[in-house]
Write a structure and sequence with these properties.
This protein is an alpha/beta fold. It has a single domain (19-156), classed as Nucleotidyltransferase, domain 5, CATH 3.30.420.140. The protein has five helices and five strands; from the N terminus they run αβββαβαβαα. It has helices at residues 2-17, 53-66, 86-101, 117-127, 136-156, and strands at 21-26, 30-36, 42-49, 71-76, 108-113. β4, α3 and β5 form a beta-alpha-beta unit. The longest helix is centred in the C-terminal third of the chain and has 21 residues, at 136-156. The radius of gyration is 16 Å and the shape is globular.
Length: 157
């Protein structure tokens, strides 16, 4: 009994120390979502079907509120050689729109390099028996999880 109580207390304190985050994998058709969990875990949190920029931003804010997130981690799709391409400009435009819509104090926004996360996500899904070509939303969610894991790992170092 003592061990269970101790473990629960430890889990609660570990959760209290880390702010809850929501991560975004910004795609042309969907935005993959992931949230931070206890002990530095990242968990899938669904996806948003893209429409207009203002609506997409509002849906992200609503998802952040729903998950009680204190910050948003946005994957930045640099080119393979680390340069800024059109996809990076679009992602930064999304971040600007997000910042205009929220107050800085209510939701922190972080950027993380997302190179290869979609490829890695497809590999992970294949290993688990899911065909990525038939379930693109799962690829987006898994990529968001990987983006969040990268961010959390970078904060530990």
């Amino acid at each position: 009994m003592f061990q269970l109580w101790y473990a629960r207390g430890f889990l609660r304190s570990a959760m209290a120390e880390q702010p809850k985050l929501i991560a975004l994998d910004l795609g042309e058709r969907r935005i993959g979502l992931a949230v931070s969990g206890p002990g530095g875990m990242s968990l899938p949190a669904g996806h948003i079907v893209r429409s207009k920029l203002a609506q997409d931003v509002q849906k992200v804010i609503d998802s952040a509120k729903e998950h009680q997130a204190q910050g948003v981690v946005v994957g930045i799709p640099y080119t393979l050689d680390g340069k800024v391409g059109e996809a990076v400009r679009l992602a930064r435009g999304f971040i600007r729109a997000l910042r205009r819509t929220i107050s800085e104090k209510s939701l922190a926004i972080y950027e993380v390099d997302e190179r290869y996360t979609s490829v890695e996500a497809e590999g992970l899904l294949r290993e688990s028996g899911v065909q990525p070509s038939r379930d693109r939303a799962s690829v987006d969610e898994t990529a968001a999880m990987l983006i969040l894991q990268r961010f959390l790992a970078s904060r530990e170092n």
